Amino acid sequence: MKKTQVQTIVNGRPVEFLCEPRQSLLEVLRDNLSLTGTKEGCNDGNCGACTVEMDGRIVPSCLVLGVEAEGAQIVTIEGIALGSGLHEVQKAFLEGAALQCGVCTPGFIVATKALLEQNPNPTEHEIRFWLANNLCRCTGYDKIVRSVQAAACRLQEEAPA
Amino acid sequence: MSTAMFGSGIRRREDPRLITGAASYTDDLTLPGMLHAAMLRSPHAHARIGAIDASRAKSARGVVAVYTSADTEGALQPSPCAWLLPDSDLKIAEYPCLAKDTVRYVGEIVAVVVAESRYQAYDALELIDVDYDPLPAAIDLEQAGGPDAPRLHAEIEGNQAFHWTVSGGDVDAAFANADVIVKERILQQRLIPTAMETRSAVASYTRASGELTLWNTTQNPHIVRFLCSLVTGVPEDRLRVVAPEVGGGFGSKIAVYPADFVTVFCAMKLGSPVKWTETRSENYQATTHGRNHVQDVELAATNDGRITGIRATVRAGMGAYLSTAAPGIPTILHGLMLSGVYDIPAIHEEVYGLYTNETPVEAYRGAGRPEATFMLERLVDVLADKLDMDPAEVRRKNFIPKFDDGHDVATGLTYDSGDYEQALDKLLRHADYAGLRAEQEEARQQGRYPGIGLSTYVEICGLGPSQVAGAIGFQGGLWESAIVRFHPSGKVHVFIGASPHGQGEETTFAQIVAAELGVSPEDVKVVHGDTDNTPMGWGTYGSRTTAVGGAALALTARKIREKCKVIAAHLLEAAVEDMEYEDGNFFVKGSPDNGKTIQDIALMANVSWNMPEGVESGLEASTFYDPPNFVFPYGAHLALVEVDAETGQVELKRYIALDDCGPQINPTIVAGQVHGGVVQGIGQALWEEAVYDEDGQLLSGSMLDYALPRADKLPEIEVLSTVTPSPHHPLGVKGIGEAGTIASTAAVYNAVMDALKPLNAPAVDMPFTPERVWRAIQKGKGN
What we know:
The complex is a heterodimer. Chain A is an alpha+beta fold. Chain A has helices spanning 25-32, 88-95, 105-118, 124-130, 142-158; strands at residues 4-10, 13-19, 51-54, 57-60, 73-75. Chain A is built from 5 helices and 5 strands, in the order ββαβββαααα. Chain A has a 5-stranded mixed β-sheet with strand order 2-1-5-3-4, with helices on both faces. The model of chain A has no long low-confidence stretch (mean pLDDT 96). In chain B, the strands form 7 sheets. A 7-stranded mixed β-sheet of chain B has the order 3-5-1-12-9-10-11, with helices on both faces.
């Protein structure tokens, strides 16, 4: 199958790759760019494990074609940590033990970051509804919800008044 | 023992790599020259295979090879069943790695394509022409054993895989003399474990040396090595199995699978590394399922609510073949637990394991114990209802009284320790049970339907001992082993055979060793998951890794300490009997300030310049720990629901779990296990069901169709505990991995039935979909 050349920005770095028209963004990230932090949970948009940020929105990367990344800004789990250390959401997940096997975790962290950027002070109800797109089989979501609340507090303390 | 680290909810050391995307799971692995395998799976539940024409596939672009069963003849033995249940007329059907002349479930492997890319491999699957001659399928568990049911395996009559019985006390007399008898038919629906990581295998074979490495999503790499060696013929010493990061298992990664052996076969045949990773759809069709019982159960009791006997007949669906550990699950892990937390003098159960044209069934979180707990807990509530007693009161009346060093039950087991009444009392106090009942009464007056459900459970875990394993036909040992190595610089390396897959035991194990040796957990590195650099272990299932592996570690660390004491006595020119130890410091009695630290001694032992006579150089020890008995965690759970009588919608309002797993090494990790376990059990009660149609097609074959618990449908899970140490365990610890699941399905079920009580609704089969609940409400109204 003829391949298409795609230019994009992944985690702040300009990236060029060749991909088949049918390849998903998830496959491109994992197979072409070796960014294996993004996980395939279902490949049909139901589990959220492959969630990445694309032009400021979160998308299930299994439902986006690689060629659609042309000119886009993509952020994956590998790009969430800041130069100086972990993102506040990651710190909160670490301190709150919000993960067990870790397969769903990259998707949860990317989704949580997006939630808190849109809604810095969500209620528990809002957190649960937002994260209903992401499946976790290990944690029962309890510590995830607490960690999102903790991350919201940390980010608010950090934000300029 | 230092308690500074034992009992502290320190952060999991696994997490930094997991939250940054740096962890490497099997599918994340890429080897130079690696090829990709895809499995052609049967679209029929039952069919004869005629001609297979793979010529078009073989000539497709990028395709390297296509293999069918004819190619593996002699090279691959059948996929083994390794729990040979005795006294059960066990009939094991041959489970070929690639189907020979018949397929028996949708998803069974018929052929494999190996290609340069995964896309090319999957594309080529569509170019293979297979002539299937479809046969009628045996699906309905209630019909599968009957004379008219289609037979799966020519040599196995009535599709009966086994018939197993457990009996204790005089059950006939108990029922003949009973004041009341209550009966239920309970359907334990088939469930799909759904680990978030699907299964995967990467095999790499070096022809020159005959060495094979298999990276595999498994809960038990050493068992995979053992069985893979038997199936593929690669000698065990040339076979290395690595479980890298493993993304959950819940029982579905215990079994060895045909697909893994086929992947190994391809790598050996082609001399190139081969990767196979299942899609989610394959995971639902071909990775093992759980539960699947039809239970007819009755309870005999006195008029004042004392249970005098339990009698049950269970038909357990095994699927088309017996998975690796399958026969032991609806029998040993189920029937032996029928006394539960109650003093029941007479117990009798017959279990019929039946072949059906469905995916093989294996352990699924709790494995047999949730099915036992549910039977008892449901029947106790039905009895309470019949006698117009409070369900808590009936439980209290029948509890085994507090015991701290062994209690025999009618099934033949000896529980280790328990105080069941204390657990229930603490739970009810926390919940304000009387207050909840009063609120319920008030709500009912207003036409609302809240329900309160209880579940009190005990479970058997920490599997061992090996002698028992042999007696019950488990084709392996049930011990664990560990090596602890102290380096000259004072750092500690731990090598352990047990291999966790999300439970955080790298952290827990480090805490155990740190506490025993008086070092920081930061100074303890835990190595697991690679058969080439860890001692033998039997795997993570049956909540045994901390209980058995943890004991092996603690005893090994204690051996190190004993050796250190001898060396310290020599260095301090004192008698060994005069030495004391505290928190990593060895000193002569009364002189704690003039001691030697364990790090000082580790350096001396390693350089070995001045050692006591007869003491070996180095500081390393190992232990093979075979437990003297199982451990028996227990607890009491309460669920609060509300049913919308107009729509049948069930809302879970509150959930409280009290679990007693003995002393908790890391309470944060324990709470996480409880949360996750509870929610899986809630999933069974409210949402989850693997549905097959009468032709054997899996209708719930994706995450869109199989309803998993999601964050918006759940309340906070409130976690409580009591602490009753196991008398026979070096650390007193029991297990916690499955407890939540074992308890919660029954608690939620009882809550919903309690809510429906004023509506006279009949019992509803799980899961409580709004439609089923609504229909039951209509029946209650006489509609």
